[in-house]
């Protein structure tokens, strides 16, 4: 297989200055579905990252126990209960991009919300499937992928559950073979210390060039989902948009790692907008 690099040039092609005559509706509505009682922070970090990476509107469908924490940290985010399906349905319908899975859990309520959401996604929407939602799908006998543009963001163990490939067997050609089983409009983000991006039926995969071990804290992947969601919501779905989001998330962490030993997900969130400004300006 051939390899191409995800570097700053890719991110610069996507992140551009905002047009003057715009409003919040110009930059998309991101709906994040995640955060149960145990993993509330995952939903909060995904939604917070989406706000800081520039989504026009962000709603978090979470468990109500997380609402005070959410609004203390990110009052820009609207909130609803992911088990209240009548309220969730119109939010799914009006979203530009939906993220499902960060901290969702794998219990019956999570499974019900997942299948409810998958049935309602339309061809025009983008669905990012991460964390618990990937684990739930992997447990199904046969996965029925939903409509829409699909972005899967498994870490190596989530990918092992989905593909039945042991971590040591996850070579580019084996990962590509799994990607070839996905719907045509899908992007697979295979996360690790060397994150790669695969598209069905391509001979070339993308290798990210940013990232560092300071990022190895729970919540870094949850944060990535919010960055990808905001990029797709603003700049449109394409594999290059996803690549730009993957690069930006880790490039912010690289800047922070110049003077910090660990780079917490919330620190990355706090510096996203500053870095995107740098990307949008001529060098
Ligand atoms: N603050 C919050 O609310 C947080 C909430 N979170 C939410 O929790 C949910 C469960 O997600 P999860 O990833 O923690 O658990 P799961 O899918 O069982 O995987 C764990 C297994 O995978 C392994 N493993 C992982 N990466 C690996 C690698 N690169 N290379 C090798 N091994 C690797 C790991 O190995 P071990 O460390 O045990 O050796 C273990 O066996 C999910 O919804 C998520 O969003 C978290 O994001 C944390 C912060
Ligand atoms: N050593 C490392 N070098 C580069 N990136 C890393 C490293 N460790 C973790 N990451 C990044 O952190 C994220 C971890 O995602 P994930 O395991 O889903 O975390 P969580 O579910 O806890 O949020 C991925 O984007 C991965 O690329
Ligand atoms: Mg994760």
UniProtKB/TrEMBL annotation:
<feature type="binding site">
    <location>
        <position position="222"/>
    </location>
    <ligand>
        <name>(6S)-NADPHX</name>
    </ligand>
</feature>
<dbReference type="InterPro" id="IPR000631">
    <property type="entry name" value="CARKD"/>
</dbReference>
<feature type="domain" description="YjeF C-terminal">
    <location>
        <begin position="7"/>
        <end position="279"/>
    </location>
</feature>
<feature type="binding site">
    <location>
        <begin position="191"/>
        <end position="195"/>
    </location>
    <ligand>
        <name>AMP</name>
    </ligand>
</feature>
<feature type="binding site">
    <location>
        <position position="103"/>
    </location>
    <ligand>
        <name>(6S)-NADPHX</name>
    </ligand>
</feature>
<dbReference type="InterPro" id="IPR017953">
    <property type="entry name" value="Carbohydrate_kinase_pred_CS"/>
</dbReference>
<dbReference type="GO" id="GO:0046496">
    <property type="term" value="P:nicotinamide nucleotide metabolic process"/>
</dbReference>
<feature type="binding site">
    <location>
        <position position="221"/>
    </location>
    <ligand>
        <name>AMP</name>
    </ligand>
</feature>
<feature type="binding site">
    <location>
        <position position="155"/>
    </location>
    <ligand>
        <name>(6S)-NADPHX</name>
    </ligand>
</feature>
<dbReference type="InterPro" id="IPR029056">
    <property type="entry name" value="Ribokinase-like"/>
</dbReference>
<dbReference type="Pfam" id="PF01256">
    <property type="entry name" value="Carb_kinase"/>
</dbReference>
<keyword id="KW-0808">Transferase</keyword>
<keyword id="KW-0520">NAD</keyword>
<keyword id="KW-0547">Nucleotide-binding</keyword>
<keyword id="KW-0456">Lyase</keyword>
<protein>
    <recommendedName>
        <fullName>ADP-dependent (S)-NAD(P)H-hydrate dehydratase</fullName>
        <ecNumber>4.2.1.136</ecNumber>
    </recommendedName>
</protein>
<dbReference type="GO" id="GO:0110051">
    <property type="term" value="P:metabolite repair"/>
</dbReference>
<keyword id="KW-0418">Kinase</keyword>
<feature type="binding site">
    <location>
        <position position="42"/>
    </location>
    <ligand>
        <name>(6S)-NADPHX</name>
    </ligand>
</feature>
<comment type="similarity">
    <text>Belongs to the NnrD/CARKD family.</text>
</comment>
<comment type="subunit">
    <text>Homotetramer.</text>
</comment>
<dbReference type="GO" id="GO:0005524">
    <property type="term" value="F:ATP binding"/>
</dbReference>
<dbReference type="GO" id="GO:0016301">
    <property type="term" value="F:kinase activity"/>
</dbReference>
<dbReference type="GO" id="GO:0052855">
    <property type="term" value="F:ADP-dependent NAD(P)H-hydrate dehydratase activity"/>
</dbReference>
<keyword id="KW-0521">NADP</keyword>
<keyword id="KW-0067">ATP-binding</keyword>
<comment type="function">
    <text>Catalyzes the dehydration of the S-form of NAD(P)HX at the expense of ADP, which is converted to AMP. Together with NAD(P)HX epimerase, which catalyzes the epimerization of the S- and R-forms, the enzyme allows the repair of both epimers of NAD(P)HX, a damaged form of NAD(P)H that is a result of enzymatic or heat-dependent hydration.</text>
</comment>
<dbReference type="GO" id="GO:0052856">
    <property type="term" value="F:NAD(P)HX epimerase activity"/>
</dbReference>
């Amino acid at each position: 297989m051939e390899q191409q690099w995800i570097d700053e040039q890719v991110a610069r092609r996507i992140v551009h200055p905002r047009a003057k005559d715009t409003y919040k509706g110009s930059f998309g509505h991101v709906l994040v579905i995640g955060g149960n009682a145990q993993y509330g922070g995952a939903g909060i970090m995904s939604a917070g990252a989406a706000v800081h990476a520039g989504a026009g509107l962000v709603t978090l469908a979470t468990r109500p126990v997380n609402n005070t924490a959410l609004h203390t940290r990110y009052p820009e985010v609207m909130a609803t209960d992911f088990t209240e399906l009548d309220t969730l349905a119109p939010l799914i319908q009006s979203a530009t991009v939906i993220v499902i899975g960060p901290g969702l859990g794998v219990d019956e309520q999570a499974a019900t919300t997942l299948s409810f959401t998958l049935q309602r996604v339309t061809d025009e929407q983008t669905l990012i499937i991460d964390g618990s939602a990937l684990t739930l799908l992997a447990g199904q006998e046969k996965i029925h992928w939903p409509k829409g543009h699909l972005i899967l963001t498994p870490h190596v163990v989530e990918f092992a559950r989905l593909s039945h490939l042991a971590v040591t067997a996850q070579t580019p050609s084996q990962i590509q073979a799994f990607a070839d089983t996905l719907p045509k409009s899908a992007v697979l983000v295979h996360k690790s210390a060397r994150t790669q991006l695969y598209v069905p039926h391509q001979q070339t995969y993308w290798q990210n060039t940013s990232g560092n071990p300071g990022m190895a804290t729970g919540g870094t992947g949850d944060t990535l989902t919010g960055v990808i969601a905001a990029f797709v919501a603003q700049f449109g779905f394409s594999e290059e948009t996803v690549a730009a989001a993957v690069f930006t998330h880790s490039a912010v962490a690289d800047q922070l790692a110049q003077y910090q030993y660990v780079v917490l997900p919330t620190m990355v969130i706090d510096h996203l907008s500053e870095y995107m400004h740098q990307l949008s300006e001529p060098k």
